[in-house]
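Meet today's protein:

…
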Amino acid sequence: VQLVESGGGLVQVGGSLRLSCAASGFDFRSYVFTWSRQSPRKAREGVACVANSDGRTRYEASAVGRVTISVDKIKKRVNLQMNTVREENTAVYYCSATVWDKPCPLDEIDMEHWGTGTAVTVSS
């Protein structure tokens, strides 16, 4: 099982960034996926999640309207489109996956598989 994040980098406040998570080595269809972030001064927090089975999504409160999570079932990728980014969005972003039959989790459960993260720096 492998999750590999990409797309991080330096972006200015108000700009946009698209993160991508390439999944391999497991039955993509049965999983839910979560994008989380961790910055030096804060605990890791879930940003957005999606259930691959029905496409339902959930978002952390500050992400609503600015962040979109999506699944590319053909390419087996989970994408995170971030718009109107803020300095406080600076963090390492992680993709995670687990088998789950309830609404997808942001922080409620321990995810089974994790990527190694991609760093996002938002500058003013």
